[in-house]
Amino acid sequence: MLRNTLHQMTTRRWLALIVLLAVGARVAFLVLFGHTLSLETSGYDAYAVNLLDGRGFTRFDDRSGDSDLPPLYPAFLVGVYTILGRDPIAVAVAQTALDAVTVVLICAIGRRVAGPLTGLLAAAFYGLYPYLLFQNLTVNDTAVFIFLLALGIWLAYRVRDSRRWLDTVALGAVFGLGALTKTLIVLVLPLLALWWWRRLGLREAIRLGAIAAAALVIVLTPWSVRNTRLHGAFVLVSTNGGSNLHQGNNACVADYLARGWDAQWVNCIELAPPELSEVEADRWHRQQAIDWLRENPGEWPRLFWTKLWVLWSPAIMPYDLPPDPYLVDDAVFQFHTPTFEAARIVHVLTFTPLLALGAGGLALAWRNGLEIGPLLAVIVAITVAYLIFHPSTRYRVPADPFVFVLSAYALAKVWNTRIAPRWYRAVDRA
Fold it and tell me: Which of 73, 117, 342, 363 could form a disulfide bond with 412, CB atoms 3.0-4.6 angstroms apart?
């Protein structure tokens, strides 16, 4: 009876159940912890408010425009505020709806890689992943960026199968929107081109890569032109690359990261001279980081391994703040509450087995010749980006859904070969 019932449930019904559970979990979080959500701690909110008030794209009261952060997420907030009002709960509701679509996309990716069971398990892992129950409800760009990544990787598989120029244009456009959220997504495209080369040959990889790159450039061009006119110098998306590079490469960062502190709050780096423009300050910070790296090659190995550990640690990073951080009071308080301490324990207990399963799934998929190139493209791109800049759990988490596809494959393999046959025999005997 039970066996027949399970078999009669179609993949769509299972997926609907998973989506319902994922949405329900987020609603439960909002009921229990919605009072902790805030707009004021997000620089994105300031951009959205200024856009709505007609003051242009800036988060500063004394400027008519800046390029400190990418524009897509503030634009998303403008849409949310216009329809639902300026409220952190409204943002959480909108991002919950977006997350529901992402669950479906992750299922589709997993199914394409290794079949329906892998897709459903990957969707469940993502939809019920405790860290994202919090992170994707807060006022930051993670939910939007993961959605765009998932849509882009789903399209990458469609391009592999169809080779149609329209699918390829859509892929490039989605990656362009992703770059307007987090610029690091541009690192994924050349890795996808390498995968196409392996699967489709060099000529086809060049054709597809060129079409996708052209679509990406077309999407980015209006914003780059706006930035160039504003600053009198070419700025592709934002001007925070130099400061992020400096925060991740200086005399203090390895010690700070090893102690569980956030590199963004490193207070030993010198601030850019106040007379410099936004673009000049970005260049100044970049040069400071390059000079330090050039002068301290002996620090590279320690910095590399520390960043790698922080990025992929089962513990939530950061888990503490420096003694004299730029952000005080509320920022310090959140890291020392019983709720946050419990969250750290839950994350260790959930992410550790998922990461271990992902490693096993990677080995199995590689041995069995599964097409996991797009998954690895995301994982490698995000890892490389934050080994260069500065890592934290929040920055790594967009790679997690693609690790979960590998985790799901490992679990599906164990279920199909070891557990299911014995379980069904026991059910039949009963």
Answer: 117
Residue 9 burial (CB count, 10 A): 11
Query: Residue 399 and residue 367: Cα distance in Å, rounded?
Result: 22
Interatomic CA distance for residues 266 and 249, integer angstroms: 11
Instruction: Assess whether the previous peptide bond of 318 is cis (omega < 30° from 0).
Output: yes
Q: Which of 159, 161, 127 has the alpha carbon at shortest distance from 146?
A: 127
Diameter of the chain measured on Cα atoms: 81
> 107: closest CA among 19, 195, 27?
19
Residues 6+ apart with CB under 8 A from 286: 241, 242, 245, 246
Q: What is the token pair recorded at 159?
A: 């391009």
Q: Are the C-beta atoms of residues 153 and 189 closer than 8 Å to each other?
A: no
Cα–Cα distances (Å) from 267 to 284, 306, 322, 334, in that order, read 17, 19, 8, 20
Q: At 399, list the tokens.
A: 């790679």
pLDDT at 1: 45
Residue of 135, 91, 26 lying closest to 394 (CA atoms) = 135
CA 404, chain centre distance (Å): 13
Helical spans, DSSP H, in 115-200: 116-127, 130-135, 142-162, 165-179, 188-200
What pTM value is reported for the model? Answer: 0.92
CA angle 291, 294, 297 (to 5 degrees): 140
238: its two tokens: 């934002």
Ramachandran sector of residue 232 (left: φ over 0; alpha: ψ -120 to 50; beta: rest): left
Q: At what angle do helices 142-162 and 373-388 cross, to 10 degrees?
A: 140
- Residue owning tokens 């997000």: 42
Q: What is the pLDDT, as a whole number, of residue 325?
A: 53
Confidence (pLDDT) at 333: 47
CB burial of 102-129 (b: ≥16 within 10 Å; e: otherwise) equals bbbbbbbbbbbbbbbbbbbbbbbbbbbb
| Per-residue pLDDT at 179 | 97
pLDDT recorded at residue 265: 66
Residue-level pLDDT at 332: 47
pLDDT along the chain (430 residues), means of 10: 54 92 94 81 87 90 85 96 94 96 97 94 96 89 96 96 93 97 94 94 94 97 96 93 92 86 73 90 95 94 94 85 54 62 87 96 94 96 95 94 97 78 50
The pLDDT score that the predictor gives to residue 423 is 52
Measured CA to CA, the distance from residue 51 to residue 250 in angstroms comes to: 35
